[in-house]
């Protein structure tokens, strides 16, 4: 009986996989693409600074510096078109795929730790056109506005509709420059798949390449994969990405510098899953989420956290024999 149950379970798992495969919208456009490791990243500079005085910590930060991470572009860029153009030229010149995060939606982060963004809808439309102009029809991936859709409950109805319209316009603008576009959809512990599917539809997911999950969050891969599969089914088989930068252990609720976490799966575009186009480190491990749980301001480098994440990942890898 146990043998029969085991075979039945394997058949069921295979049928689920085949169902996902046949429901997916086409192949993975990122499969086999090389991702860019910045030789002058903050992690690399910090490791070099600590090399003599704290060699063990430097070695742990090296583990972060060796991995590709996304490049965030927001209202701090004085000339967004020039910055994007320069980054695309450098990264494609190295034979890699540029991965950007567009992070400038008006009312960003509902005024919390990462508050800011464009000063109005027209300013945002101009900004995203300058961003897209910097791509100039070359290969690039853009993760569009982390938290903008799942975090818009702080807005009234008119502003919510305006935000979704801005994201839909951004999708069209970026796609006109041949970018691969993934609209952010929060994570598995935020909204139901039905709620996020409705918001994504109104924000232009039909024209986008897919959606992103877990950006700057800590929810484990198993939960995000299950959530992404449900959301994909509601969206006709759309593909998705997962930020695995800090979810090696997984925090269920605390999103702002939770302690006891670990680096997650290293970035790759070969995921062995028909719906997942990439596991990426979208958030730079070692950067603070904000002035919470002892952290500096959002986006600032925090050596203590970087070392903690890397050390925990090393311990976790040893415990499972990797």
Describe this structure in words.
This protein is of the alpha/beta class and 322 residues long. Helices cover 41% and strands 10% of the residues. The protein has 9 helices and 7 strands, in the order H-H-H-E-H-E-H-E-H-E-H-E-H-E-E-H. The protein has helices at residues 2-23, 42-50, 55-65, 80-93, 121-135, 157-175, 193-202, 221-234, 303-319; strands spanning 71-74, 99-103, 141-144, 180-184, 210-213, 239-243, 276-280. Strand 5, helix 8 (221-234) and strand 6 form a beta-alpha-beta unit. Helix 2 (42-50) packs antiparallel against helix 3 (55-65). The longest helix has 22 residues, at 2-23. The chain is globular, with a radius of gyration of 20 Å.
Short description:
The protein has 322 residues and is an alpha/beta fold. Helix content is 41%, strand content 10%.
């Amino acid at each position: 009986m146990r043998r029969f149950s085991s075979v039945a379970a394997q058949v069921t798992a295979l049928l689920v996989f085949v169902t996902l495969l046949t429901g997916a919208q086409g192949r993975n456009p990122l499969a086999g693409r090389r991702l860019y490791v910045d030789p002058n990243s903050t992690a690399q500079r910090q490791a070099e600074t600590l090399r003599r005085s704290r060699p063990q910590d430097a070695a742990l930060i090296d583990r972060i510096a060796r991995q590709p991470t996304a490049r965030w572009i927001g209202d701090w860029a004085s000339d967004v078109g020039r910055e994007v153009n320069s980054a695309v030229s450098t990264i494609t010149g190295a034979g890699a795929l540029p991965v950007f995060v567009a992070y400038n939606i008006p009312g960003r982060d509902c005024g919390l730790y990462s508050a800011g963004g464009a000063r109005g809808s027209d300013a945002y439309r101009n900004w995203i056109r300058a961003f897209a102009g910097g791509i100039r029809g070359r290969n690039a991936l853009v993760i569009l506005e982390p938290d903008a859709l799942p975090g818009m409950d702080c807005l009234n109805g008119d502003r919510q509709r305006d935000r979704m319209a801005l994201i839909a316009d951004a999708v069209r603008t970026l796609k006109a420059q041949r970018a691969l576009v993934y609209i952010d959809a929060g994570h598995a512990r935020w909204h139901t798949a039905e709620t996020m599917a409705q918001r994504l539809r109104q924000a232009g997911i039909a024209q986008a390449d897919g959606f992103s999950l877990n950006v700057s969050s800590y929810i484990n891969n198993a939960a995000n994969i299950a959530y992404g599969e449900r959301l994909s089914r509601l969206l006709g088989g759309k593909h998705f990405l997962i930020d695995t930068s800090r979810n090696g252990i997984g925090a269920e609720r605390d999103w702002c510098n939770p302690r006891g976490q670990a680096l997650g799966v290293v970035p790759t575009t070969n995921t062995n899953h028909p719906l997942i186009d990439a596991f990426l480190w979208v958030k730079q491990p070692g950067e603070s989420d904000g002035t919470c749980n002892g952290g500096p301001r959002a986006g600032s480098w925090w050596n203590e956290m970087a070392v903690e994440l890397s050390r925990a990942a090393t311990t976790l890898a040893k415990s499972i024999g990797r």
